[in-house]
Specification:
There is one protein chain. The chain is built from 5 helices and 8 strands, in the order βββαβαβαβαβαβ. It is of the alpha/beta class and 186 residues long. Strands 1-2-3-4-5-6-7-8 form an 8-stranded parallel β-sheet, covered by helices on one side. Strand 4, helix 2 and strand 5 form a beta-alpha-beta unit. It is globular. The C terminus is likely disordered.
Length: 186
């Protein structure tokens, strides 16, 4: 499945958008498609185990077409070690359900994400998407060489965008609520 907008949190986004929610917030609507996962910022939440249990059934729902937003964030959430364990648990759940893209949130943990991708990419879908990429062309090139897709929002590094092959370049609005040509005119 292809989307015009590969990552948004807007529940009212058009059917051409992939709506990202956490398991506790999953309320599917007809004609919409979802990515579901425990966000790194929620890895220290009291209901984490409940969310991971919910994730298994959510990933089986026909409107869920991707795992995400999952990943690592050195600035928020549990310790990076805990986040890594939680990420791997989610990847294991997804791998037991079916092949699906993975939408990655990554803040200051690209080496770790690349290592996780190397360990898991043969068991999951080949489309691993770094969402909201704002870093430079050197890191973009490294991610592309490792097999990642890169999703660009309304704020991004133009040099990184330019070196990203169109076949690996995705668009997103993330939290931008308005769907206009300006938002998606990358």
């Amino acid at each position: 499945m292809e989307f015009i907008d590969w990552h948004t949190h807007d529940p009212d986004a058009p059917a051409t958008a992939l709506i990202s929610v956490e398991p506790r917030d999953f309320k599917p609507r007809d004609g919409r498609f979802y990515s579901v996962g425990v966000h790194p910022w929620s890895t220290a939440d009291d209901d984490l185990e409940r969310q991971l249990l919910l994730l298994d059934s959510m990933l089986r729902h026909p409107r869920v077409v991707a795992l995400g937003e999952v990943g690592l964030d050195r600035l928020r959430g549990a310790t990076i070690e805990s986040q890594l364990q939680i990420l791997e648990r989610q990847l294991a759940i997804a791998a037991s359900v079916r092949q699906m893209p993975v939408v990655i949130h990554c803040v200051r943990a690209y080496d770790e994400i690349i290592n996780v991708h190397r360990r898991w990419s043969d068991r999951l879908h080949d489309r691993w998407i770094i969402h909201g990429f704002r870093r430079g062309p050197k890191l973009a090139r490294r991610l592309i060489d490792e097999g990642f897709y890169i999703s660009f929002g309304t704020r991004y590094n133009h040099l990184a965008f330019e070196i990203t092959p169109p076949s690996r370049r995705l668009r997103e609005t993330d939290f931008t609520p308005l769907y206009t040509n300006e938002n998606l005119s990358l």
